């Protein structure tokens, strides 16, 4: 659930025009004639951000996950409908108390170094993640209350949790819980495994030059793709190179120039140009998780009154702000959860609309009267808020902030916009001296809402304690309608109580040459190259 | 000479110690905490943050942190990256060469081109050529390197397809980044050399040489240049620091391997150990280059050699 603010990606899709293929298949524009998949060829995929580590158990970076997805397979696969499907585990059983998971494993899988994939390997992975020496930044949080794992026989792994935790199974589908080869991980040691990754995925690691490129090659004999794949057997591409080109102009230029065949993080202002370019195809995939949201700190004077928060929401013209900042390339978010996330419900924000006059009236009714300089006051207290914005200017979020700050000023709210790097932002979070903060996360399970609204989370910017009970219950409810309904209720209350307001949806945007076909995406928008081929 | 070198190296040590202390303190005295920036993890609880802080040793008192860092650094161990768990020393050593190549190629280019253009401009002063060179040198110092880099890529690589736009391998891929990085330095060097040459041209000994019947060309290249170039050597040395810093920007534009990209990643990821390591290595490079410059200075000007050695 890496913080989007720091790691380069962007916002939302399809205008109301074409049919949006949700979930696993991305929307594509450009004239792509039918072609038959044929093995062979190499693809260079330009990415915007340098990689950190290819050790899934260590890294927390969305960027790294795009490579991890090719090298590592997961125990389970998450389909476009948010249902967990078999992958390396062919079946599983969850005990009634939700504490014990019994996985039946495929027996035909080997890691790229020849090590057999079995229950011992699965248990090794979990124990490696939870070993404090691993200093896991993310994977460890995905398996939550993991307690122990035992190999009943080579094809049966039994995982025990300390308490019921439904997100466990969904999270197993992410690249961060991809299965590493125990032999290779032991041989490399922690310091080196991150640059010599070995998994069981469709591509195996060939070479890595930090800050330049990572080269993968087809994993011969691969025959255990999940059901969601278009084909079984080996990947079509012989070689897959991720090349780091930070500058967007150079990245797209290299694509048009033919130096690379695909480029990610297409800037919002370039999207329409790319769509119109007949020599390029454009792909986009909404990232599941939490949309970019604005939170009101309920522990601050003024904002402790729900009527004031609700008025501030009305004061902000979010539709226009998103449109003006992103040139129509991204869409306004409808809910705290992004489309494609389990529990997504766009109706939770119905009734939210921009109305500056109503906002002003409600502030006045709440006792905040404009003072001499136009800033509202109540009992000698001025309505002056500190808006904590991101620095560097990831995803043009600073321009977005400027727009909203102006909206707030227009109804007599004083706003101090503080653009802070994450370390300084954290200091302000700890001191609790901010009034408005923003964030977004990539995740697969709706439990991401715990990160946003549970009182134990440092990213609970609204400082609410109202949802603790519901969030805890939702963590233990079995997957299904009842759980999803509870998440919808939490989201609706978060919005009606004006704890947070959804702003825009994160979208991973890729331009490719028209010869590149069938790049797949999982719900978190990590690309999958197993089915990718080059049309002749 | 050996004595001189040893003395200069010894004098460099306190400078480097100062660099480590300043870097260490700046990173830690700025309000904020690196751990939150690293976390993208699940329900990120205060306990998780405290746990990571302890694992990274950030809960220790500052002097203890600094001394343990210094002790390790003296043994060539610059610590472990927060974000990747890799050894900082090996992360840096993999990226050092491309940056050094780039900075030195740019330094060489700026020195040669700067001296050439400066002397030419002085020789034909107040002519059209002189005017052109002066305009170029002012523009050169004023243009940001990333913009120069982008323009070079757009024109040379994308339009005319003469040289590759990105990558780190081979001489071909060094040309454009080195030019982009060198342009501002060429501007500075040109102006400096031009002014110096003009100044020396006005000295009495030049008049005497004229009177002896030497040609203008001989006077300029044999006698004036040697005197005028001395300050340029110092500036070239000082510029190495600036060029290493400028490499950060240029490497990003040209998607080159190097310390620049490493430091950029370290900043966005709050990776203190990597940041410290890179700054210290760059500091060491600058100190080293300045020692070399002092020695070159001595070689070019015997007066300095004797005064340095005699002190």
TrEMBL record, chain A:
Keyword annotations from UniProtKB, A to Z: Signal
Record organism: Kineosporia babensis
Signal peptide (residue range): 1-26
Gene3D superfamilies: Dipeptide-binding Protein, Domain 3 (3.10.105.10), Periplasmic binding protein-like II (3.40.190.10)
Pfam families, A to Z: SBP_bac_5
Keyword Zinc: no
GO CC annotation terms, alphabetical: ATP-binding cassette (ABC) transporter complex; periplasmic space
Keyword Lipid biosynthesis part of the UniProt annotation: no
InterPro entries linked: Peptide/Ni-bd, SBP_5, SBP_5_dom
Gene Ontology biological process terms from the UniProt entry: peptide transport
Lineage: Bacteria, Bacillati, Actinomycetota, Actinomycetes, Kineosporiales
Residue span, Solute-binding protein family domain: 83-455
Top-level taxon of origin: Bacteria
Record's protein name: ABC transporter substrate-binding protein
GO molecular-function terms, A-Z: peptide transmembrane transporter activity
Automatic annotation (TrEMBL), chain B:
Domain (ABC transmembrane type-1) ranges: 96-297
Subcellular localization: Cell membrane
Keyword flag RNA-binding: no
Main location class: membrane
GO cellular component: plasma membrane
PANTHER family in alphabetical order: DIPEPTIDE TRANSPORT SYSTEM PERMEASE PROTEIN DPPB-RELATED (PTHR43163:SF6)
Name of the protein: ABC transporter permease
Domain of life: Bacteria
GO molecular-function term, one example from the UniProt record: dipeptide transmembrane transporter activity
TM region(s), chain numbering: 9-30, 102-124, 136-162, 174-193, 228-254, 274-297
Keyword line: Cell membrane, Membrane, Transmembrane, Transmembrane helix, Transport
Family membership noted in the UniProt record: Belongs to the binding-protein-dependent transport system permease family.
Gene3D superfamilies: MetI-like
